[in-house]
Amino acid sequence: MVRTVMFANKGDFGPSGIGGIQRYVNQLYLHAHGIDMGMSLGIRTYEDRDSVFNFEDLKRGDRNADIIHNLVEHRFIIDKKREYNFVSTAHEFAPLLYKQFDYDLYRTFEDYVGGLTPRILRSICKNILSSDFIIANSTQTMEEAIRLGFEKRRIFIANLGIDDRLLKRKIIKRSAKKIRIGYIGTMRRRKGVETVARIAKYLDRDKFIWDLYGRKDIFRYEKLSWLIDKYRNINYKGVAPEKGLERIYDGFDIFVSPTMYEGFGITIIEAYSRGIPVLIYRKSRIPDEVRKYCFEAEDANGMARIIKGIAKEGYDEDRRRKAIEYAKGFTWASCARKTLEAYEKILQRG
After folding, report:
1. What is residue 113's predicted lDDT score, i.e. its pLDDT?
2. Which of the listed CATH numbers 3.40.50.720, 2.60.40.1260, 3.40.50.2000, 1.10.10.10 matches domain 164-327?
3. Minimal CA–CA distance to 180: which of 199, 214, 205, 208?
């Protein structure tokens, strides 16, 4: 029997949280246990998120594992005399490739206090590149790893999934005089949420309403609050709760993702699944498999024109149907199966 140990931060294996990586850890482990492929799946948790974990400190039982899989962005030291295969999930390599995102460092107050500096983020990415194998969350992340010198033959892809509730709940079409434009994500600068103001200025405030959901970035939200005060049709709604997420999406007529970079872009797939048109910027770095059915604009004016067009002509039913069907392929069960299949191939390569 294949012995695998999944490794993540303390609490990540528990009920799914709002964080994308925490949701990944929880859902991957939950669904992997439902697949019978003759594997023993154990877990190890890391107590202190700001220190370096030394895999030489693993108890003997774990060191006898066939595979140890690091699921999170963490610093580690691998046992040089190891007999197990060390695998890391790569969520993104932006810290190494795009230094302009250094300004976008702090995601939470804990990050700030913990001193999650650009140097540390880059060292985490380099750690991942020192793994025996990588499981990338998207083709884009795989291409980034190759660009950084990692061998393609040692990379597997397991796209992230979306909550089954979003795929199973009946879609109810909105019928309202005002068009509601939605955003779900963080308030980080690279997410481009401030460009909402540039888009909004081209739209009739009496006809279009914006609902922004997301965790406040400790440095960005205060800089964004002026746009909420200036544009009375822009509302900050707080963090989108896990329960009822499908109802939030169903309240949107259009979904806008003005991000400059996404390692994956799970909210885009979630919006597809609810039959909502999704807008992105053409120059944004979003994986090809995620942006497949997006409307793409060059700038804020172009995005406003697309919004007006959809408001006037509606969302093409054929495109809508194809996007909904496409989203059904992004399940956590599929992510788990591809991960377990990667384990098998890793062991076959010996």
Report:
1. 45
2. 3.40.50.2000
3. 208
